[in-house]
Structure of MFS transporter:
Amino acid sequence: MQGTALTKSEKKNLWFVIAASSVGTLIEWYDFYIFGSLATILSEQFFPTDDPYVGFLSTLATFAAGFVVRPFGAIVFGRLGDLVGRKYTFMVTLVLMGGSTFAIGLIPGYQTIGILAPILVLILRLLQGLALGGEYGGAATYVAEHAPAAERGFYTSFIQTTATLGLFVSIGVILLVRQSVGVTEFSEWGWRIPFIVSAVLVAVSVFIRLKMSESPLFSKLKAEGKVSKNPIRESFGNKENLKLVLIALFGAAAGQGVVWYTGQFYAMTFIEKTCMVDFVQTRDIIAIALLLGTPLFIFFGWWSDKVGRKYIMLAGMLIAVFMYRPVYDKMFSIAQVTGKTELVNERVTENSPAQEKITKKFNDGTQQVITTTTKIVDGKEQRDMKQEIILSNEAYWIMILLVFAQLVLVTMVYGPIAAFLVELFPTKIRYTSMSLPYHIGNGIFGGLTPFLATFLFVQSKSDVNPEGDPLAGLWYPIAIAAITFIIGMIFLTNRRKAEVME
């Protein structure tokens, strides 16, 4: 199948392989990212609330912990996949991920069980990271080993859409549940529902994947008795293969990782926490941009079959280096109310026993909602003030356009990378070899982006500048993307239409 055109039955089988692999991988991404999508609420549930930013950073650190262990999952499950097979390995990762997500939805909050709450969440988050470390490499390898050589970029790009679609589905489920149960109820207990729903999604995916057969290339290798006896040693103990692993990491995956997470997760964090845009409006902006941008994964995967993988991926990184600061500066400026004319006669004040809410309306349609909550803590009255911005219609669509511009770069770097990685390594150690650089690049360099960028922003605050530099967090992804671009230009080959994958 690798070098010839597909028959009608082979093409039908290939689309089943893609659908079955994609559904399971999408659900794993949904499970993994729902934690990040609910970071603000989870920081209030599982961590002390004395300092909102400390709690939020703690949640982002726990979120990042799942990324940090992904390379270990890549080694453990990559080895298993190269020894036993692709199909059974990512069945195990799917069940492990689903069980961990379901369990997070059942953990009592910090107010109930104290420090045990964040400890349990961290343990389950680490299990999620291990599972995802084994899932992606298996799914990408499985699809690539079914696809014809000249169209590998196109067919593997469908797997590439699952990460973004998983984020999109997580946002959609969150907004649907929030709308159904109410804002207050969602913050108190409704946030658990998206985690618990995961059990149903995983059960459906397991049923579908049970009908899949093993990869033809791996089956052939197994029948010939050529399966690797020690995939880890052959992957990283062999100098030539280790060199390829390092080139894949520092010349492609690291830069791809930071561009991916900046364009989606840090964008959401920045809009909500730095620009202080309304919870629902923030997620609507990200969801619409994701919906518009997702088809481009397939386009750039297809295009990489024609012109090669290297220059498409590196162009996305280079553009990001020069584009991020002006784009984020514009995102920040359109959410500000300073200098706008307040319509005093349109100001609305709502009072309840423990809460005062003031809505200020401005001449361009922007609204500023200031909520002051009074509560008694240790016998003393404590007031918490929260500010949210509701963007005008024009600013709302400009914000969507700015996020979409970042998503174009995401699709450029991510669309071709699965085909690029699977073509780099031989079949008998492919699962192990490709999984490690991918998950270090995405799990550590990329996954730490929201935490490190937010940390840099918080650190930029001082007595002289108490508001901080809203663009300070961008230096991390810009630096990593620039370094990866330089290394990639020097060491990467421009792969396309590879005829054989041995």
